[in-house]
Every structure is written in C-alpha cells, then in structure tokens.
Design goal:
This protein is mainly alpha-helical and 256 residues long. The protein has helices at 7-30, 34-56, 70-101, 105-110, 113-133, 136-155, 160-187, 194-219, 225-255.
C-alpha cells in the first residue's frame, strides 16, 4: 500500500509557521498594527486548528503527543530559547564590531569562525562525555558556558575582544549542550514517537534561528548603547529561563 501523506496537516503547518514568522518579524520591526495583528491571529488559529486536526486523523504529519512527555517538553523549550539567543549573537556580532570598532565587514564576519569551529569540537567532546558519564556533566558544562558568555555580553560589550570572547564562550557552551539535550530528550519518548521528536527539534532550531535573526536585526535597526543593552538583557533573561528548564528536566530525570 502507498504511504499516507497528511497534505491537509502539511498545509496547516505551513500557514502556522509562515504567519508566525512574518507576524513576529513585523511586530519587532514596526510595532502593533492591524496588519501585524492579523498575522498573529492567523498564527494562533492555525496552531489551534492543527491541534484539533492531529487528534482526529490516524497518522498526522507531526504527532504533538510528544509534548505529553515532560522531559522532552522541557528540553525542547530550552533548546528553542538557547538557539534563539545563539542566532541573535551570530546575526548582530559582526554588525556591532563594524560599528563600534570600525573594522572591515570581512574581519567582522570572520569573528564568529573560532566559535563555530569550537562548537563542532565541543559537540564531539560532549558526545564522549555523555557516553561515559551520562547527560549531567556535558549539560552542566554547557549551561555554565552559555550563562558566562551571556553575562559577559551584557557587562563587557564595548571592546573587540570582550565581544569576541562572549560569543565564543556561548558557541562553546552550545556545542556541549545542544546535542546532549536533544539526545536525552528524544530518548525519553516511546520508540514510535522518537522520529517525531527528532523532527520537532530540527524544526524548532530552524524556526528559533529565523526568529532570533529577525529579533536581533529589528532591535539593532539603529545601533546605539540603549539598544545593545536591551538586546543583551533579553538574551540574559532567555538564558536564565533556559537554565531553569534544564535543571527542572535534570530533576525529573533523577526522579525517574
């Protein structure tokens, strides 16, 4: 028999993601307008309609029953927040360096390269630590580096090397944290839902990346001290929330 493709669910999700992204981006860039509110309303309605749709169809394209598993839900939300912050760093750091230190665009863009290489290396090391010692050690190291990089970005953001160190520490922490968090969260799902869990993490990471870029560019449409400060405060709030979710997830895992 031919495999069933949930075309209606696919269409609803396309509307959900596009209206959400456009609505959030326009809210950031132009504030509350009737046009922007329409997008947010469509975003909310399509989300609610998909929730109803996946309950009445036998094989939905994405089964959101995965969110009944608390450890997965906490890990997913934490990953979304951390990825959002990471993309605000990657999107704005070259711009800040160009503006504040009058460096070339090429030099400013290459600033994120050491952290990107370190991210890949730390991901590999984090995987080794996860296999040998379980999830707690790489998660703790990663969370500490995420917090340290974010705090440094808030307190010391006026010189080239403190900006570089801030984003590099964050990228190193992301390397330790992301893959371990995803692996542990998905492994807690029943086997028949693990492919859905993997797909949702990938979707969430890409969607957070798009929102994070729009958020950062919107807030730094005019680069000045106040806008930089507000962006860094928002990053810190998001990372603190992420850390709370991480520790809540670890506590649940110990209880189980």
């Amino acid at each position: 028999t031919r495999p069933f493709f949930d075309a209606r669910g696919w269409f609803i999700l396309v509307v959900f993601f596009i209206t959400g992204l456009v609505g959030i981006e326009r809210l950031i860039s132009s504030g509350v307008t009737l046009y922007n509110i329409i997008f947010i309303v469509l975003f909310s309605l399509s989300g609610g309609f998909y929730y109803w749709h996946q309950r009445v169809i036998k094989t939905p394209i994405i089964n959101i029953d995965v969110f009944r598993q608390n450890i997965f839900t906490l890990g997913f939300i934490a990953a979304f927040g951390a990825q959002l912050v990471l993309l605000t760093y990657i999107a704005t750091t070259p711009l800040l360096i160009q503006t504040l230190t009058e460096r070339t665009a090429t030099f400013s863009g290459l600033i994120v390269l050491p952290g990107a290489i370190g991210n890949a290396v730390m991901s590999y090391i984090g995987g080794i630590l996860y296999d040998r010692f379980g999830m707690q050690l790489p998660i703790m190291i990663g969370t500490f580096l995420l917090l340290t990089g974010t705090v440094m970005g808030l307190l010391f953001n006026t010189t080239l090397w403190t900006i570089v160190l801030s984003i590099t520490l964050y990228q190193f922490g992301a390397g330790f944290w992301f893959s371990t968090n995803m692996t542990e969260s998905v492994s807690r799902l029943p086997e028949n839902l693990q492919s859905t869990g993997n797909a949702l993490f990938n979707i969430g990471n890409n969607y957070a990346a798009a929102i994070g870029t729009a958020l950062a560019i919107g807030m730094l449409n005019v680069v000045n001290v106040n806008n930089i400060y507000y962006l860094n405060v928002l990053r810190l709030v998001l990372i603190v929330i992420t850390s709370i979710l991480v520790f809540a997830s670890m506590r649940l895992q110990r209880q189980n």
